[in-house]
Amino acid sequence: MLYAGLDVHKNFCQAIVLTKDSEVVKEKRIKSEKKDIEEFFSGFENIRVAFEASTNYEYFYDVLNGLGFTVHLSHPLKTRLIAESRVKTDKIDARALADLLRGNLLPTSYVPPDKIRKLRHLVRHRIFLGRHRSKLKNQIHAELHRRNLKYPGPNVFTNTGIQWLRSLKIPAIESYLTIYDAVVKELKSAELEIKIEGIKYKEVRLLITIPGIGVYSALLIFSEIGNINRFNSEEKLFSYAGLTPRVHQSGENSYHGRITKDGSKYLRWILVEAVRVHIQCAPESNITQYYYRLKKKKPGNVATIAAARKLLQAIYHMLKNKDEFRG
Fold first, then answer.
1. Full-model pTM
2. What is the pLDDT of residue 82?
3. Do 212 and 282 meet the contact criterion of CB atoms below 8 Å apart?
4. Which CATH class is domain 2-102?
5. In what order do the strands lie in the sheet containing 70-74?
6. Is 88 a residue whose pLDDT tops 50?
7. CB–CB of 241/306 below 8 Å?
8. How many CA atoms lie within 13 A of 213 on its CB side?
9. pLDDT value at 78 more than 60
10. Range(s) for CATH 3.30.420.40 in the chain?
11. DSSP conformation class of 37
């Protein structure tokens, strides 16, 4: 068995291959192109490869996996806690990854299967478009405020309101509206695709039985969690969502601080958004009652986060037991 470490960068990789006894078989700086990676590993068999998770991890994972290698995606933060040295170079980083892999000490990240990756890209694209639409709305409101112009209705972003905006003949607003129309068109297209894809999965059909969660929210939750069986306890899932409090302990004293915010920011965000809607539309649910009991003693945002964790607890057991929401 051979062990390889890759220190991945945008345009190049520092690669190293070690034997079980830590002897260097091959070491080289190569371009981050498929043909260069294939050329470096040409002739190797029975090899395990490690590299750190990054925004473009899928490209390297698919290339290496396509060569028939066992690929390990390293958790960047945990890896640095174990292996960071005072002298940091690409060669040292690549060697550290290979050594951790060789010693079976490499902290790994979850690599979702292709279908889950595609769902993640779909819902994250929808998130991007939604946030871009909000920014455009804010810019248009700012232009109106700068001129002390007030739309007579409750919402200027209706068909009537947009006609009113265009009638003002303000160049900046007309420019923003052109982009806004294009974004809204793309949003509708993404939402249609989400609806078609989402309903195919039994996990999504279970999650939409929760008041306040529609197909989009359910698909986002499902795509971020993936296979629920990879979490052997609800606490593991809470940690993955970054909804566990920081703990500071010294002697017999312990202090629970704010949530860690580690793990999936998308899962944490949608849970908070979903629980706010759930509280409004399901006043009798256990989650809502829990929220109001806590709100009497804690600030509203603390109660919301705690309720989001309670919602995630319900989701965990629903997916584990393949059962609908029971309130």
1. 0.85
2. 61
3. yes
4. alpha beta
5. 24-31, 12-18, 2-8, 47-52, 70-74
6. yes
7. no
8. 28
9. yes
10. 2-102
11. H
